[in-house]
């Protein structure tokens, strides 16, 4: 099936030509590849816009606005990053359901029980972390396969979210007022207005995630466990606790996304994260595109963020290119599917040829 | 279940006794039976012909797709694209039946062929692309949904004639009072059960799921077996799509969303191990029956219908938990 022959990189890179070098960097340095693709996408849509094929200008202002939809997917993709890196088939299908349920709890706190904002936000994030802890306990300690544990909790959490307010959204005045959390902020002249929560939520979370993954003992332990959990156990790493924490962090990030989505919709919707194909699927797609290997042990925050940006701007462009009703969102489905399969193929290729991926 | 795996994976001196029904299946029969007894005592509407026919009919598509999905999961794969596959088949067949007046048998044949093709795409990507099955099928889930929406155009397909009613719901779709779709399911399941138990290639499915590398060394054509499992699932989806079209004259754009989760739930509740190598079609049928019974019960007791999902989630956890426990005891011995 998927045996990966690890060839020492040194043997491959010695005496290679320019074309081979470009190929190697393109395959193994995921951020470089994504940055090139990002430029291609932006230039392509700019050209389409100049030729009059778009219904609205694909300019800086539009790209700035589009960042609003990037925030949830980028955060959930980072959540998947933690879980997938932890290895042994790690995956979290329940993130969308956690967004729904934690969002409903947030809605109750702010809109029904009249809690002040800050404790409510904290409460929402704690609820997310607790729901993630259930997943983590099942996977790490009871040793359920992650796919099944999170499938079961996906059902359970989304059911609770739907039942909690009899399938109705909560949009009392205090909840509606939360929309100001996601207002645009004006930046100095050449830069367009950018949604506030890019600065208040996305960037801090991304920096924290980066610090945890690349600069902390926990991060090292997580990569070790994901690469080879038997070896990690011999190296005195507590494998179960490391995996458990990965799921808790995933739930915690989903709780943060719950706050964001309640703000964006100006209402706590019970189906926020599960409507249609749900939020888990795009999150996993972005993570895989960002260079996270599904086998575990490989993946970086930077790659995931650039991948999220690429998908966001691609989606935004397609909405302008296909003016007719649902046609744009239909092509978004196609693009998401193709991108997922192709980037997974790319990951396999890179791992086979160079034995590494980053 | 284990007897089969052991038989394939390692030479056993004494041929183990062949048992038709294993532990998990017995437990499921007990649970379903208990539920039926309790429900017929608590409500006066459960044990009516109409309700039982209804349960069997609504469960039929899940069970049908589950037959293929059992094979896929036994090979340590997974197919989350079945809902979108069903959408593609349904829109094409419904349009052909409505606009070109396709008769019953050709319609079923077309549905199965489209299903086969869609399954083959998944199978080829899994076997030769070296991509994890969940990633492949997540991708094709989106792509197939795009294809179906593109064919739909902007609206639903309404006014589909009752060509497929013989395997749909209603009076015409029954034989001896049991929905024809369920007879079809039983027939197919029996065939699959024999295939996976007695035919060499069928037993190879278990070998692939148990340890693909060892299976290859033992001369199993691993890639072919993987492809065949996904193709089989596609064909089952084609049949299930016919059953779904047969039940009404309307095909909406969101058909099949969430089907994959219900099917996987039925398979897993039925005792098939998600890491591969273990499971039977009989278990899947019982799992699907349990899911159908629970959702019928929630409706009859006039609880909020969303509770069904909570119960399915809990059943998955219990079923897999019991399986893990047994596995641990077995390896400790």
From TrEMBL, chain A:
On the tree of life, the source organism's domain of life is: Bacteria
Q: Does the keyword Cell membrane apply?
A: yes
GO MF, one annotated term: transmembrane transporter activity
Localization annotation: Cell membrane
- Which GO CC annotations does the UniProt entry carry? plasma membrane
Q: What keywords were assigned to this record?
A: Cell inner membrane, Cell membrane, Membrane, Transmembrane, Transmembrane helix, Transport
Has UniProt tagged this entry with the keyword Ribosomal protein? no
Task: Please give the name of this protein.
Answer: Ribose transport system permease protein/erythritol transport system permease protein
Bilayer disposition of the protein = Multi-pass membrane protein
TrEMBL record, chain B:
Compartment(s) where it occurs, according to its Swiss-Prot or TrEMBL record: Cell membrane
What's its membrane topology? Answer: Multi-pass membrane protein
Q: Which InterPro entries match?
A: ABC_transp_permease (IPR001851)
- GO cellular component terms, semicolon-separated: plasma membrane
* Keyword rRNA-binding among record annotations: no
Which keywords label this protein? Cell membrane, Membrane, Transmembrane, Transmembrane helix
Q: Does the keyword Transmembrane helix apply?
A: yes
Instruction: Spell out the molecular function terms from Gene Ontology.
Output: transmembrane transporter activity
Segments passing through the bilayer = 26-47, 54-74, 80-97, 104-131, 181-200, 229-251, 257-275, 282-301, 307-325
Q: What is its main location?
A: membrane
| Protein name (record) | Monosaccharide ABC transporter membrane protein (CUT2 family)
What is the organism of origin for this protein? Pseudonocardia hierapolitana
């Amino acid at each position: 099936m998927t045996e990966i022959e690890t060839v020492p990189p040194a043997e491959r890179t010695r005496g290679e030509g320019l074309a081979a070098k470009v190929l190697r960097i393109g395959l193994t340095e995921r951020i470089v590849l994504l940055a090139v693709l990002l430029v291609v996408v932006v230039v392509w849509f700019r050209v389409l816009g100049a030729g009059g094929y778009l219904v609205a200008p694909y300019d800086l202002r539009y790209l700035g606005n589009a960042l609003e939809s990037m925030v949830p997917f980028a955060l959930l993709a980072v959540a998947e990053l933690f879980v997938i890196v932890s290895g042994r088939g790690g995956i979290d299908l329940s993130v969308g359901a956690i967004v729904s349920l934690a969002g409903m709890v947030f809605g109750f706190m702010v809109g029904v029980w009249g809690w002040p904002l800050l404790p409510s936000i904290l409460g929402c994030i704690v609820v997310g972390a607790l729901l993630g802890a259930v997943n983590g306990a099942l996977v790490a300690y009871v040793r359920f396969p992650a796919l099944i544990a999170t499938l079961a909790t996906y059902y359970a959490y989304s059911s609770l979210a739907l039942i909690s307010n009899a399938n109705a959204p909560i949009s009392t005045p205090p909840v509606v007022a939360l929309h100001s959390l996601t207002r645009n902020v004006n930046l100095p002249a050449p830069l367009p207005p950018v949604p506030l929560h890019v600065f208040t939520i996305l960037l801090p979370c991304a920096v924290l995630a980066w610090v945890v993954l690349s600069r902390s003992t926990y991060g090292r332990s997580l990569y070790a466990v994901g690469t080879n959990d038997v070896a990690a156990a011999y190296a005195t790493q507590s494998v179960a606790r490391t995996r458990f924490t990965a799921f808790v962090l995933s739930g915690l990030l989903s709780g943060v996304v719950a706050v964001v989505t309640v703000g964006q919709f100006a209402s706590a919707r019970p189906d926020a994260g599960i409507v249609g194909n749900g939020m888990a699927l795009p999150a996993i797609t972005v993570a895989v595109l960002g260079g996270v290997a599904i086998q575990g042990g490989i993946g970086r925050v930077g790659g995931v963020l650039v991948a999220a940006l690429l998908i966001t701007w691609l989606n935004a462009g397609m909405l302008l290119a296909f003016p007719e009703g649902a046609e744009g969102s239909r092509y978004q489905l196609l693009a998401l599917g193709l991108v997922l399969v192709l980037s997974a193929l790319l990951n396999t290729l890179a791992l086979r040829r160079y034995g590494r991926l980053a | 279940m284990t007897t089969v795996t052991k038989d394939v994976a390692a030479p056993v001196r004494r041929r183990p006794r062949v048992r038709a029904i294993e532990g998990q299946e017995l437990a499921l029969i007990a649970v379903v039976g208990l539920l039926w007894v309790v429900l017929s005592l608590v409500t006066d509407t459960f044990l009516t012909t109409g309700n039982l026919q209804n349960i069997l009919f609504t469960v039929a598509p899940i069970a049908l797709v589950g037959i293929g999905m059992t094979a896929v999961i036994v090979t340590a794969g997974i197919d989350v694209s079945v809902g979108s596959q069903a959408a593609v088949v349904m829109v094409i067949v419904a349009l052909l039946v409505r606009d070109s007046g396709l008769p019953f048998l050709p319609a079923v044949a077309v549905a199965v062929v489209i299903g086969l093709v869609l399954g083959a795409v998944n199978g080829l990507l899994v076997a030769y692309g070296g991509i994890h099955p969940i990633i492949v099928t997540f991708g094709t889930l989106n792509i197939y949904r795009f294809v179906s929406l593109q064919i739909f155009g902007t609206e639903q397909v309404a006014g589909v004639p009752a060509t497929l009613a013989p395997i749909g719901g209603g009076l015409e779709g029954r034989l001896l009072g049991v929905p024809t779709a369920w007879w079809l399911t039983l027939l197919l399941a029996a065939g699959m059960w024999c295939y996976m138990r007695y035919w060499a290639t069928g037993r190879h499915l278990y070998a692939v799921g148990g340890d693909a590398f060892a299976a290859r060394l033992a001369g199993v054509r691993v890639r072919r077996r993987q492809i065949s499992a996904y193709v089989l699932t596609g064909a089952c989806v084609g049949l299930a799509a016919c059953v779904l079209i047969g039940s009404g004259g309307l095909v909406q754009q969101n058909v099949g969303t969430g089907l994959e989760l219900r099917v996987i739930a039925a398979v897993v509740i039925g005792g098939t191990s998600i890491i591969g190598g273990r499971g039977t079609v009989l278990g899947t049928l019982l799992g699907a029956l349990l899911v159908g019974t629970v959702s019928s019960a929630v409706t009859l007791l006039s609880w909020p219908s969303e509770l069904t999902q909570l119960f399915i989630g809990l059943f998955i956890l219990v079923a897999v938990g019991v399986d893990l426990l047994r596995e641990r005891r077995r390896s400790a011995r």
